[in-house]
Amino acid sequence: xLDPFGDRAKRLVKEEFGGISELLSIxxxxxxxxxxxxxxxxVKSGEIPEEILGLGDVQDLLTFYALxxxxxxxxYGIEMELVKESNAKIYSERLRRAxxxxxxxxxxxxxxxxxxxxxxxxxxxxxxxxxLPPGERERLRLKYKIPLGKLLELWDxxxxxxxxxxxxxxxxxxxxxxxxxxxxxxxxxxxxxxLYEVRDELPEYYLRLYERLGExxxxxxxxxxxxxxxxxxxPLRFDLFPPCVKIALGGVPSGLRNYAITxxxxxxxxxxxxxxxxPRRDVRIRDCVSDLSIVEKEILPVIIEAGNRCSPxxxxxxxxxxxxxxxxxxFGLTDKPTLEDSGNSTWYFPPNCSKIRANAPQLCKPDRxxxxxxxxxxxxxxxxxxxxxxxxxxxxxxxGGEENG
Length: 405
Fold this sequence. Notes:
Elements: H1 7-16, H2 20-30, H3 33-41, H4 50-53, H5 57-71, H6 78-98, E1 109-110, H7 118-125, H8 134-140, E2 144-147, H9 148-154, E3 163-165, E4 168-171, H10 173-196, H11 204-220, H12 222-228, H13 243-249, H14 257-274, H15 293-308, H16 314-317, H17 321-328, H18 353-359, H19 376-404
Antiparallel strand pairs: 1-2, 2-4, 3-4
Helix pairs in contact: 2-5, 3-5, 3-11, 5-6, 5-11, 6-10, 6-11, 14-15, 14-17
């Protein structure tokens, strides 16, 4: 298979398996954990096994979606980066070997020779340079075109790199592959976000596979983790919060107070600080901390301050709402909880974006990072992930410069 998000893959998922849910339910019966891990374990050697490149369409889809299912337990972390990186290389290599970018999630059209003026083609493809070897000529050839609007959705480079004519962007083979990789990354993150919402319904197989992925990822990114630290519980980064949470922090009118503070802010802050990647939805705070000091010193004061910024101030107007905060944190209806009380009620998970839009549309003011995000917590995890990845890249560049100097 050339693209797990292409039309053929979509047809297979729908017609052969009956949909994503059904596909995920049968994978444990057909794909062993070791077999799924083979799709990522080769990264250490840097050479993709021929057995992986030669997988049939169905087996390819099963093993790929096995990994996606495992990532539902950690949508933004080193495990996701490992799976995305290794599988992008697998599919890129298949496309290179196929000789044409076809059957993928991006609709690239072939270019007719007469479409490009002879003078332009001569300059761009250097057709008069007889000294160029055949491989270089092929590399310069404009093989594909795509509507400019579609290109702009994915292209991460300068438009000066692209030949544009009559509303179309014309691309070389390498530019086409680069565009496909951007499409793959976007589809990959969208799929992981969707599966994050149903992870409680997934068989235990996927949790065990996720644990194995973690082992491979920690080994692969060992140096980076030593430099940057892992994405486990850490002090809150308010600057990376989603817009809805920032609005709640600033205080809201009376009609929104209980939802914004008790439902959204309490759940978001507690999970973001204590357990950003919970292994399951029925996790308790006492599973994540050994005492309540972080809750009492770092989380509760922020909630109280946000409540007091409301109009009228929430906890002055409704003093009993403090008990409701502890209830939503999983300690039952109390204002003097102990760690042992954790589990007396459900530790509420942050509501999905769709529920926020339905129950408190005034809180939903999406920014550019909200695209494909289904839950405020995954927004935060993604921002943390991107920032840590950027810092790691900067540090590698600095260290490389020092060595060269």
